[in-house]
Amino acid sequence: MTLKEGRRVRLAADIRLADALAAADGSAGSPAPVPGFLALAAGTEGMVERVDDEERRESHEVREYQRLTSLFESFGHAMPPESKRQLEERIAALEPEWAAFREQRPGVRLRVRFDSGFVLDGAPGGLFTEAAGEAG
Length: 136
What we know:
This protein is of the alpha+beta class. It has helices at about 60-75, 80-105, and strands at about 10, 15, 40, 45-55, 110-115, 120-125, 130. Helix 1 (about 60-75) packs across helix 2 (about 80-105). It is elongated, with a radius of gyration of 24 Å. The mean pLDDT is about 85.
């Protein structure tokens, strides 16, 4: 499923929100803490208001692999045989890290306005499935 603005989605699992609850009573000063939590049930539907792509973080090894392969592609043909062999070995040693990085699927974070009026912002896209009647 492609997650995009305007698409109807459904929560795939129950979620419990308990992080920063505070009373918004409009009184001066900081809001008073509120005990408890909010739970949203699986199957709750809403509309995607915003989709933010998550950046994949490149490890030092991934950056080094990119740097070395660029060096090899640009200058490998002119390198002395021993230097070329050492560079090839270093690249080969970093290939598992590179392969794992390439297999990572970039995630998305969503802002969803549920039919009940609640808004969930910054939620991982994997929490949602396509709502009924949205296939196509």
